[in-house]
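for the writeup, i need someone to sanity check this before i put it in the appendix. the sequnce is what the collaborator sent (i think, or maybe the updated version? ugh). structure was predicted straight from it, no edits. if anything looks off just tell me and ill rerun, i have time this weekend
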Amino acid sequence: MTKHDTPRRGGGKALANWGPAILFAVILPFVTYGMLTDHGVSQVKALLLISLWPAVETLLHLAIRRRVDEFGMMMLILMLLGALSATAYNTTELVFLKDSAITGLLGLSFLGSLLLRRPLMFYLGRKFGTDGTPEGLAHWNGLWEFPGFRRTQYLLTTVWGLGFLAEAAIRAVLTYTLPTDAMVLVNNVLPLVVVAALVTWTTRVAKAGRARSAAAQAAAAEASATPATAGGSAA
């Protein structure tokens, strides 16, 4: 392995993680909206049709991985709720507000999970922070015994919940500020920007937590070794 292998692999992993999201959440909806409206489809119907692309991505992911997790199920339920309520939309503003409402509901779900036995970020961390093997899952579940780990999960869940609520509020305001064509792009790009910012912050928090844990373990090991050394010297 050369010193250039790690950055290349990191870039490939980032492309694998973000590529499908950008394709299904930004590129395909934006292109499809233009094609539909150019062929006479109303703006409302076009917006409802392009909202199916993220659902297609989710279903493809579930079909390929052949595994359903808590977060994937929650997202599917939110998408189904949005689809079932689609008949009530007769203006483009209502369609965009529907997306804001779903994001706000997601934020409330995060905050509401703070009252449960384990907050939602614990399950998200288990999904993305382990290799999915029984050993990896067991190790992650065992971390809940440590107070510092629990505090971190509650902090992450709170910030993610507030972040989604802020995004929902911003999109609701922009709905009545921007023209429809511009809002189509903003409505699909803004969620990715918010998630990317939250993921970046979460990664930094996780690294800081691991550093504190390693320092604490080193200090404990040094403390336990010191009496033994002193005893040996005295002898």
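Residues 1-11 have pLDDT under 50 and may be disordered. DSSP finds nine helices and no strands in the chain.
thx in advance!!
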